[in-house]
Specification:
5-stranded antiparallel beta sheet, Phosphatase 2c, domain 1, single chain, alpha+beta
Length: 259
């Protein structure tokens, strides 16, 4: 099946002292690339969005229920909407964990409410991952079985918890499962120069080896083109390792540049 690839870049803003000598030191740029394939599925139930290269959203509709593609798209769009509006309140912006809970609460209620419509009473549910990237920090919220890793100096750290796959479907801990009480995983930490975040839905993540991840990140370089090639390689590796499901992978990297 064909691939869908997206990428972008965003430079951190600085306000210079006009009376100070300008020191030519490397500045930092955030680059990202995303790749998506449908696999052998009839519909693409993964969805990826980003806002201003500072908020990244990844959703995967629960395939054992109808309308997975509707759930994933609606969740992604609502999460971005919530991010743009909730961040205007200083109280939430200063408490990123509470901020993330509000994003997930608003999005979950939207998915829950959608099921009240006649055409969607059979149910619709979706996973959701939201990553907010600041100048030196990342904040990640996750509900469902998508995965995220952080790479620093060749060391790989998995940020999300592995889910218990013995639990029957439909999965709990996803959006739309219940009206209230959804509590996403939350993790945050430094995100410095030359560090890389990798996000992937389960159709990709479950078929990647540590070697696949290490090799792709090593090749991700410092340009959008290199990051695009690296994230495409992740999807190709998942396919080669047997995945026939919807697959989405995202690479987000902070690199140095001179201006």
């Amino acid at each position: 099946m064909g691939s869908r690839i997206r990428s972008g870049t965003h430079k951190n803003m600085r306000f210079a002292d006009p009376y100070a000598l300008r020191i030519k030191t490397p500045r930092e740029t955030l680059i990202f690339a995303a790749c998506q394939r449908r696999g052998e599925r009839e519909t693409q139930e993964d969805y990826f969005l980003n806002f201003n290269d500072e908020c990244f959203v990844l959703a995967d509709g629960v395939g054992t229920l109808p309308h997975g593609e509707v759930a994933a798209k609606l969740a992604s769009e609502t999460a971005i909407w919530a991010y743009k509006h909730i961040r205007q309140h200083r109280y939430y912006w200063l408490d990123k964990k509470l901020f993330m809970k509000r994003i997930f609460r608003s999005t979950n209620l939207t998915i829950w409410q959608k099921q009240r419509e006649v055409d969607f009473r059979e149910g619709l549910k979706t996973t959701l991952m939201v990553v907010i990237v600041g100048e030196k920090t990342y904040w990640l919220g996750n509900a469902g079985d998508s995965s995220a890793w952080l790479f620093h100096d060749g060391v790989m750290k998995k940020l999300t918890k592995d889910k218990d796959r013995s639990v029957g479907e439909p999965k709990r801990g996803v959006l739309g499962d219940r009206r209230l009480g959804l509590i996403p995983e939350f993790v945050s930490g430094p995100f410095k120069r030359n560090e890389t975040l990798v996000l992937a839905t389960d159709g990709c993540a479950n078929y990647l080896t540590p070697s696949d991840l290490d090799t792709s990140v090593e090749r991700s370089g410092s340009t959008i083109e290199e990051a695009t090639n690296a994230v495409t390689a992740l999807i190709t590796s998942a396919e080669a390792n047997g995945s026939e499901a919807n697959m989405t992978a995202v690479i987000i990297k902070r690199v140095a540049t001179r201006s």
